[in-house]
Amino acid sequence: MCGIVGYVGDRTALPFLIDGLKKLEYRGYDSAGVAMVDGNSALVEKCEGRIQALEERLLHNHIEGKVGIGHTRWATHGKPSDTNAHPHTDCAGEIAVVHNGIIENYARIREFLQKRGHVFRSETDTEVMPHLIEHYYEGNLEKAVQRAAKDLHGSYAMAVVSTKEPDKIVAVRNLSPLIVGLGQGENYLASDIPALLNHTRETIVLEDGEMAVITRDSVRVLSLSGEEREKNTFFVPWDPVQAERGGYPHFMLKEIHEQPGALSETLRGRLSPDGRVVLTEMTMTEAEALAINRVFLVACGTAFHAGMVGKYFIERIVGIPAEVDLASEFRYRNPVITPGSLLVVVSQSGETADTLAALREGKARGCRVIAITNVVGSSVAREADDVIYTWAGPEIAVASTKAYTTQVEALSLLALYIAQMRGHMDIYQLNEYVMHLRMLPRKAQETLERCAPVQELARELAAHDDVFFIGRGVDYASALEGQLKLKEISYIHAEAYAAGELKHGTLALITENVPVIALATQKEVLEKMISNITEVRARGARVIIITADGLEGLDEYSSSIIRVPDTHPLLMPVLTAIPQQLLAYYAAVYRGCDVDKPRNLAKSVTVE
Ligand code: AGP
Asked: 260 and 152, same structural domain?
């Protein structure tokens, strides 16, 4: 997510803007910029890269403005570049805007404005905002912003300054956070609390659909239709470290809880009102879609487990064979790639060396390549023929959580999209999948709310040195992801097995009280799973079952059953990932491990 800061007061704005942006660096960004207003002159300075690069630019291009806004960009629409960095301005350079979120209908607005002579300079969705405000401006900045905001569809937190009214910041919140900080003879704005803590702890939290008009000695909060709103102030008790994590003790726990929002953002604009999948970013033609006769899903680690679920989507939804490869294996096994082969690479960072090498190998052999990644402008994004971005926002913890669940979601969107293009699915089947997808973010939230018992189960697991995960079908992929989460942050030896495989060797390791996490969400193999659970119980295993609403007959097999809400069977990995992430998280905490930065591991493995 991007970072936003703003200052209005008696001092020059720049020191606060730079300090505030630096406090938001932990969120991850690829470019930064500021806009300051001093009477009827405005300065906008912005560049790709770190805040230090911006500071160097400002040494040669300084202004004493006492009103200003700043931004760190996590690219969504438009690659990281000086031009795409925020702030963006109107034609005359008199209105400057910074934005966090996604404007779904920006293309239509851009076209509307271009027809009226507005000249655009960037590839971003954001740039429509200053031009739209300029279009509506008739002498009152907040009214122009209100009218512009009503035209915008999507998620946005925006801050606006203008030489037309140089004593104020106008800010609007809609699905992206914005907080006003209250000072003495000065007031502040930020997208996140850490940017404020060096200056104030008295804050006003804006709600969705609210606008703030901020001057040096006043803060008015209005609805978008102009009604004044009475707001309580909120004292921020956190220290700066807690504030960076949104009050959570670790980034991983914060990111686990961000999953409903990440799932919602990844769906945003991609499900049409009539129940179809819309991937405007895809360039693949219908002929190319019809020519696909095999799909290779290639990734590493957690992304590989998402790819395993993707195999089920492709085969069940599109009806063509799919195989999943570890990138480090794919690139050396001389894969049989024939015309019509589609390569799908999955990578949160988009920089994993093995995955990037596999992409290049597949491309060199004639594959069409689609990348699913969380980082705009990453290497895989640049080198693939098409990219489907997960909009999970920066994932700071080494252990991947929200990236995984949004990867699974994105893979389901891809499969549905290809099936649509190939005419392989009737509208009723399509609508059923889309209905389940629409409900997924809310069901993820419900899953989080059901996970209170997980912490105590994790305490129990923390005392063990070996834990096993079992499942069938997509539950096996879920089990593989669960074991990886547990071992990579708690250092407990964990293994996952296809439940039907236990009797071929692993059962020898199932002894008295050894924990077995059984994933049992697939109705068609539930009876088989019950048999496998019985097998391990007979050898004394301590069984914890993760299942779904509506699946009965399991209560007698374990005193510890975690139920996730019902959803489409193929989407179950999104929900069952959550209790497993929390099991791993709390077990690691109980074992005193460095949850966010586990030993020996890196967030992005850019070496082979
Ligand atoms: C997952 O928790 C690990 N951090 C690791 O397995 C990771 O998924 C793997 O390195 C792939 O990273 P990528 O998605 O950035 O390519």
From this structure: no
- Per DSSP bridges, beta strands 3-9 and 368-373 are unpaired
pLDDT tens digits along 361-379: 999 999 999 999 998 778 8
The full 3-state SS of 256-273, as one line of letters, equals HHCHHHHHHHHHCCCECC
What spacing in Å lies between the alpha carbon of 236 and ligand 1's midpoint? 34
Question: E strands within 146-292?
Answer: 154-162, 169-174, 179-182, 186-190, 202-205, 210-214, 219-223, 228-229, 234-235
Q: How far apart (Å, rounded) are the C-alpha atoms in residues 64 and 46?
A: 17
- Are residues 327 and 312 part of one domain? yes
Task: Encode pLDDT of 441-456 as tens digits.
Answer: 999 999 999 999 999 9
Ligand 1 contact via 488 beta carbon (within 6 Å): yes
**Tens digits of per-residue pLDDT, 189-204?**
999 888 999 999 999 9
How much is the pLDDT for 1? 66
Question: Are 171 and 247 in a shared domain?
Answer: no
- Residue 398 CA, closest ligand 1 atom number: 4
Query: pTM of the full predicted structure?
Result: 0.82
Looking at the fold, whether 15 and 156 belong to one and the same domain comes out as: yes
Same domain membership, residue 220 and residue 274: no
On whether both 461 and 401 belong to a single domain, the answer is no
Would you state the pLDDT for residue 159? 98
Catalytic residue, candidates 2, 47, 367, 451: 2
Total domains, the chain = 3
Same domain, 176 and 314: no
